[in-house]
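May I ask you to review the protein record following this short note?
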Amino acid sequence: MILLRLCRLALLSLVLPIQPADANQIRIKDLVEFDGVRGNDLVGYGLVVGLNGTGDGLRNAPFTEEIMTNILERLGVNVTGEQFRPKNVAAVFVTGSLPPFARAGGQIDVTVSAIGDASSLLGGTLVMTPLNAADGQIYAVAQGTIIAGGAAAEGDAASVVQGVPTAGVIPSGARVEREIEFALGSLSSLRLALREPDFTTAGRIESAINARFGRGVAVMMDSGTVQLDISGTRARSPAHALAAIENIRIDPERKARVVVDQRSGTIVMGQDVRISRIAVSQGGLTLRVRETPVVAQPNPFAPGETLVVPRTDADIEEEPGIGLAEVAPGTTLSEVIAGLNALGVAPRDMIDILKSIKAAGALHAEFVVR
């Protein structure tokens, strides 16, 4: 009998996998940003060549002709006073982000976007373009073949466009030429900035770090900042201390929030959203107006003139909705949504009901409409 019970328990453990105790815990690195450890935006102005007749019209984009003239003159080609109107070039903005601790010689991705009246960048090649940061210094140089995410085709009487062929990317298309100095090894303290400021989450981060390294290493400054004393971690370097801190797991606290997308009818909610006692009644009216004008004209060879007599049919119909329904206190929003779905309420009507519940003060959550 004992052997049979053990076999049953073993079989049950195979069918039902045991969830780890910290399945809902999140690493600190996924909740915070380390102060000073961030990327820097880069931007440049360049020229794309090799387009199949889909470039800028130089009469409408004189800046394209100007940059093309400057590039040719730097290459030793004198075009002063010449009239040239190629259709295979386009002026573009080149943007990218320099990651933290990027070293000279490294490569980053860049995005290329047309700024003139070019219809497509498909098949184009970006000519060497310096990328500047906010301080005006050049930190990278971009060049390469553009991968555009759209397609365009046209004939004599029609054209079709799918996606956005006037913008594309160059994977690893920029090479880092200048490094941003950041002396991480000399820091004795560092701040953690929470992506979603919350006092409870900041307090749990403080407690978890102090439990690992000792009391006083982490101090919560406010809902979005935790101060670290790196010297108190007794790590070999600040980098080693941050490597150990960022993998500590905690259970973050989340705000009760409802996000509604009116364009697609999507409703996303958290598990802590609650609704107070409230009664809901929903219905709708449909107005229809139809115009059917009638043309009245005289008989042949009879005096008179042709008239257009308007005829309008208008009616109002009341669509069936949900009757008066009472929501018990402490009910979760997910239960209300499930009930509305069971009644066949459309997503648009459901969004209107949620707005009305929020306006009545019965929806205890942050309500975000996009």
